[in-house]
Amino acid sequence: MKILHINTLDISGGAARAAYRLHKALLAEGIDSSMLVQIKISDDYTVIDIADNKMQKAFNRLRPIIDQIPVKFYKNRTKTLFSPAWFGFNNILKKIEDINPDIVHLHWICGGMIKIEDLCKIKKPIVWSLHDNWAFTGGCHIKWDCEKYKDKCGSCPRLGSNKENDLSRWVWNRKQKTFSKMDNLIINGLSRWIMNVSQQSSLLKDKRHINLPNPIDTNTFKPFDKEESRELWNLPKNKKLILFGAMSATSDINKGFKELSEALKMLNLKDIEFVVFGSSKPQNAPDFKFETHYVGHLYDDISLVTLYNAVDVMVVPSLQENLSNTIMESLSCGTPVVAFDVGGNSDMIEHKVNGYLAKPFDIEGLASGIEWILNNADYKSLRQNAREKVVKNFDSKIVAQKYINLYKEILNKP
Questions:
Q1: In this protein, which residues make up the domain named Glycosyl transferase family (predicted)?
Q2: Which positions of the chain have pLDDT values less than 70?
């Protein structure tokens, strides 16, 4: 059984890290797995770079910029990423053909990596794991409250457009034409939420949908001594620590730093401090009236593990979330999580069992959740429940076997 995972990057970004973890989990189970990427950052020989030479590598770094050219014509567009996926002229189809996998497993394939029309030229069975909304929209990666994906898109609020036949309609039409030719496609919603949303979409409603999660290595992400962890990070041992972190943690509006900042100012707690990873201290950093530690970007799992273990609660206030790596990682380390009850968060967080789910965008509820965790008389049970949830449902060996069973089913189907 030969599986090829396709993702724009290998280890940078949430989708890349999730795809790479699945790839490594399959290798650990003896599966012939490889990964094909547009931009390779790791030195892992099982990850294949689309580029064959330095000139191609340099050009591939320009592809995300070239792909955005049609978007630039919309002067009133929002900051939400929008991908037209119009730019071809690469050798990805030849690479797939040369590798000759039994199954192609697509992940996050934007940033100019593949032209929409080229998807139907992949002749192997395809599993597509949805890491965001792009596959079933007219181009946006976060649909927010827009439901035009159930029809034909057009007049796109993300583009600031009031024209029906705009860029989003053009992308939708291209996807509709391409997907109608793809009888070899299975859609994997990584969370129950995104699977249900995709099933309601006009583009993918007729495709087979399944729900298999991302895996995590629970032998890496595991409980570690709190005092030693705080020593490693030079954090105080006599304070209760609140953690927040993500890629572009303080600048990406979807990550909820603004909402969390308001919630932190409501806290009726003493002896607390705040820790932020994924961002350096912003120029106009909020004043929370207590110490804030900005630890910057983290590039390895061991740093993440020790940081999760150093704190008392993790807060993930994202406005839209699929199957959050940070929630899964924190719970696996035995650190309870507070989040809004959106997207796939309830797949991992059981309210008042291993964390706290606040009503969507309820700032007071978010603050109450943080206080409930930090003041909990049975905090030890919260930690145990957090760890147990991940070990039972998301451990690499368990999840890898589910994917292997899916691949076998596909290959054994007449």
A1: 225-388
A2: none
